[in-house]
Amino acid sequence: MGDFVSATDTLIRYRDDETVDHGAVTVDSFLDQSNANAVRVEPGDDARELIPHLSRLSLVEVNFPAFGDGRGYSSARMLREAGYEGELRAVGDVLVDQIAYMRRCGFDAFEPDAALDKDDLAAALARWPEVYQPAADSRKPIWAKRHA
Which Pfam family name is an example for this entry (predicted)? Predict the structure, then answer.
């Protein structure tokens, strides 16, 4: 696997094949197990079911089976707003154009199906230096900076 961390502390992993197993179980399996600490959220899953168990989770993978399916953004934001502090990884059909928005929703790691160009990734993450609304990340909105 190719791992790298950019200047913005974004962890990118690439799959060498489809047999990579990070120990994440389905939401249903997680809720039935007392020892699981990693879960994979699929688009139809209700991430709110994980909220009572956030303290025992170290990894939440959110699957994006198609780039146009945005339900994973909501799952990420709900988990971060509920206090989840572990690794939140977007996996699947993750495009470089989406990563800056995914980071705003709380993702801090990515495992795209296809490799991303490092220069394109750096440009995408640097494209919007200011933001206009609070989100799950720690960036301060520009209006709050003006009136501080």
Answer: DUF934
Its pTM stands at 0.81
Residue 141 gets which letter from DSSP? P
Say which CATH number the domain at 11 has. Answer: 3.40.50
Contacts of 97 (CB under 8 A, 6+ apart): 124
Nearest partner of 125 among 4, 7, 3, 2, judged by Cα: 7
Contact at 8 Å (CB) between 129 and 119? Answer: no
Range of the domain at 9: 3-146
For residue range 33-74, list pLDDT tens digits in order.
Answer: 878 899 999 999 999 999 999 999 999 999 999 988 889 999
pLDDT of 5 above 60: no
Counting the structural domains of the chain, the total is 1
Buried b / exposed e over 85-117, threshold 16 CB at 10 Å, is: ebbbbbbbbbebebbbebbbbbbbbbbbeeebe
